[in-house]
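Hi there,

I know you've been waiting on this one. I reran it after we fixed the sequence typo, so this is the corrected version. Both the input and the resulting structure follow.
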Amino acid sequence: MTKPFSVAFKQKMVQRLTGKNAVSANQLARETGVRQQSLSRWLQEARSLPIMADRPEPVRVWTIEGKFVSLPTPLNLPARS
């Protein structure tokens, strides 16, 4: 039975396989004792995920005019008696 690895551990291994000082899956397998097939599968799975960290939600900056335009107009409101 194989040992289940934590998500944090898998992320760390994927980081070692990618980026500036990336090593091969074979090299990392020799260093860590994790099977090369597992490392390669984790890398493939990570590459298939959408990248969310690189595309932060845009922050909407409201101007005074923009706030005013977004307010409902009183035209459709019933008159008070």
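Quick highlight: The two ends are 78 Å apart (CA to CA).

Best,
R. S.
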